[in-house]
Structure formats: structure tokens, C-alpha cells
Amino acid sequence: MHPTTKLLVFFCIAAAAVSSSTHAAGTGGGAARCVPHEREALLEFKGGITSDPTGQLASWRRDGDHDCCRWRGVRCSRRTGHVRELHLRNVHANNTLLIDDAETALVGQISPSLLSLRHLVHLDLSVQELQGPTGRVPEFLGSFKKLRYINLSCIPFIGRVPPHLGNLSRLQSLDLSQTNDVILSFGAHLSSTDISWLTRLPMLRYLNMQHLNVGDSDLNDQPPSALGGLKHLQVLIYSRSSMGTIPSMRNLCNLEVLDLSDNFLHGNIFEMLPRCSPNKLTELHLENNNVRGLPRLIGEFVNIVTLDMSNNQLTGHIPSEIGMLNKLAYLDLSNEKNQLTGTIPSEIGMLNNLAYMDLSGNNIGGQEFNYHDSRIFDMAIIDISSNFLTGGIPEELVTLDGILSLNFSWNTLSGKLSNKIGAMQSMESLDLSRNRFYG
């Protein structure tokens, strides 16, 4: 599992546990029964559903169990019986999460009857077809005063995000993300040229705006606090949003995951990133942009575990300060758009946790491919193909046990290959082609 996936799964699980004082369908004991007018509100919501192919709301029946706290997806306060959470994500029968599956989705609209659930803190309607006749995000969703978690991801909404969501002052997690499949299947595309409403969400910890189009706006013209004022933010995903510039995030001292990939970012991005002590950033995704340099100040991000800057326009040398990232496990500076030069700094050999390194498709050279610290090879996957490396393969390489994949193809390496290289038991993939080896 990719490091990003692990962290995001963790945040999803943590967000799902908003309240420990709720009881779920099928639980009994001395818990209070649901409030009658809230039961009616849920039934009215079901009335706005025109298709339920998997029977997700089958237990929501007027002639069935009158305790709506026992209905599937409903969580109530054990003490008062008020509905506090709705977990209505589109799931498989075995309860595994879906990315997108129209054949199992609820179809219909989000009923304003849900406003009767005045104690609601958690609302998950993700991966459903609840865009309704207008196709737009309902403005009334901004009226849930106690809401702390809302997930509307992969609902094929169109149009602009209503600034009314800025009224959710207690919100800690907001997910409006879309996927390529949803956009291609439904032609759905959300946009938000004005994100100033985010300034009214001071408690936000998780924000996912993937595929939210901001292409016709300049985020630098937004109020400085639009993003930079979200002091509690831990995860920010703003990928595939046609973004060209970003406002300063220097004061986001709690930020751990930042994904700005697949945009049009350029300039000195690192000057805009959190500059805190300690710096908590563990994942930085800037792949598929137009970033031109990897500056020496990269050494300040000492907690980085994942650094992906593939498919940019990187030039210059890899700075020796990269050796200060002693927690780094995943490094990708690849792709032919990048044109890094110089040699691979020996300081990379100081990165004891590095398991994946891809420097392919650059202009990296060197008179001799040999290092005093063989720990540069103490990783699982190495790809340095399509560069200008010279010299031979170090003897230390063939004695290592942990390498799974090694690609040195399309360089100018030379010399005799050790017959031990074929005895590396853990090796699953080896490509030394387009070099000058013999033996």
C-alpha cells in the first residue's frame, strides 16, 4: 500500500469515529429510542430516492422497526436518541469501499428534511447519485450548525460550490472530491473561483477538493487566510484543479499531507510551504506540475516520508541537503520533463528508510557509479534509467538481499557483470539493457 493510501485511510477511519456516544443498527441495551420527528425526516429523505438497487435503505420502513436508531447507516445518541450520524456511502455487500459504481448507487436527491436532524455531526453521502434535478450542491447543507464531518465525494454535482458551506463553523472534515470516472461518466465538474468561505471553517483538519476547478481564478488574490488561516489543517488535497499559483501556507504548522499534484503550479513553491519548527509535513505530492527547482531548503522538511516531484520541469542538481530527510521512504524525481543534472549526491546513502527511488529520465551523470556508503542500494525499488551514468556496478550491490526491482537501462555504464547478480534471490525485475556491460 502506498504511504498516501495508509495515511488517508487512517484519517477516514478517525473521521468516522466522530462520536463515541452513538449506537448503531442492531444494538440494544438501555439506549434511548429515536425521536419521532427525526424518524419522519429520514423517511422523507428516503422518499426522495428513486432507485436503491442494493436495498441500502431497506430497513427504513414506516411499517417496520419504529426505532430508526436501528436502521442501517443511522447512529443515534444512546442518551437522548437524537440522530447524530448518517453513514450512507455507497458500499459493496461485503462493506468494502467503492471508488465509483453507478450500478449500486442510490439515485435521487438530498432532501431538506434532513435539517430536522438538528444534532447531526456526521454526514456521509459519498459515491451516490444524489445530485437531484438541478445537479448542484444544495445550499441548505450549510445550515447544519453542529456538523463536524461531511463527505459528498463522487456525487456528480455540477456548478459552483455554494459559499453557504462556510457556515459550518464546527466542521473538521470536508470532502468534495471527484474522480475521473465520475467526470467522464456524468460530465460533472464542480468549481469554486472564490474560496474565501473557507476562512469561516477554523476547525478544519481534513480538506479534499480534488478536481474542484479553480482554473479561472488566482488563489493569490484570495484573502491570505483562505487557506493559510486553517491552522488546524492536517490533510490538504487540491489536486487536478487547474491551479496555477497557491497562497502562502507557511503558518499551517499542523499540516501533514499536502497533495497539489496534476495542476499548473510554477515558481518557488517551497517558499509557500509550511515553515514551522518542528515541520510536521510527511507527504508532499507535487507531481505533474511545472515546478522548476528542488531548492536547498528541502532539508528543512525533516519529517518527509513521501516526496513526489515527478513530471515537472526540474533543473539543476539534486541538493546535498536531501540527505537530511532521514525519514524519507519514497522519492520520485522522474520523467523526461525533468532535466536534473550533476551526480547522485552521496548523502542519499544516509537515508536509512529509503525504500523507493526513481530518478529516471533526467540528465544525471557521473564519472563512476560507486559510493563509499552502499546504503544507497539498501532499498526495494531503484530506477535510474535513461540518464548518463558511467562506470560499473558496485560489487556491494550483488550482496544485498532486499532489492526487488532494479533498472539501470539506457545509461553508459560499462564493465564486466558479476556472475553473482543472477543469484540475488529477492530480485523480481532487473533491467541493465542499453549499456556497455560484458560477461
How would you concisely characterize the structure shown here?
The protein is mainly beta. It has helices spanning 3-16, 36-47, 180-186, 225-228; strands spanning 22-23, 49-51, 74-77, 83-87, 107-108, 122-124, 149-151, 159-160, 173-175, 190-191, 206-208, 235-237, 257-259, 283-285, 306-308, 315-317, 330-332, 339-341, 356-358, 381-383, 405-407, 414-416, 429-431, 436-438.
Describe this structure in words.
The protein has helices spanning 3-16, 36-47, 180-186, 225-228; strands spanning 22-23, 49-51, 74-77, 83-87, 107-108, 122-124, 149-151, 159-160, 173-175, 190-191, 206-208, 235-237, 257-259, 283-285, 306-308, 315-317, 330-332, 339-341, 356-358, 381-383, 405-407, 414-416, 429-431, 436-438. The strands form 5 sheets. Strands 1-3-4-6-7-9-11-12-13-14-15-17-19-20-21-23 form a 16-stranded mixed beta sheet, with helices on one face. Strands 2-5 form a two-stranded antiparallel ribbon. The longest helix has 14 residues, at 3-16. The model is unreliable at 3-21 (pLDDT under 50). Helix content is 8%, strand content 16%. It is elongated and about 80 Å long. The chain is built from 4 helices and 24 strands. The protein has 439 residues and is mainly β.
What is the strand and helix layout of this fold?
Blueprint: H1 3-16, E1 22-23, H2 36-47, E2 49-51, E3 74-77, E4 83-87, E5 107-108, E6 122-124, E7 149-151, E8 159-160, E9 173-175, H3 180-186, E10 190-191, E11 206-208, H4 225-228, E12 235-237, E13 257-259, E14 283-285, E15 306-308, E16 315-317, E17 330-332, E18 339-341, E19 356-358, E20 381-383, E21 405-407, E22 414-416, E23 429-431, E24 436-438
Parallel strand pairs: 4-6, 6-7, 7-9, 8-10, 9-11, 11-12, 12-13, 13-14, 14-15, 15-17, 16-18, 17-19, 19-20, 20-21, 21-23, 22-24
Antiparallel strand pairs: 1-3, 2-5, 3-4
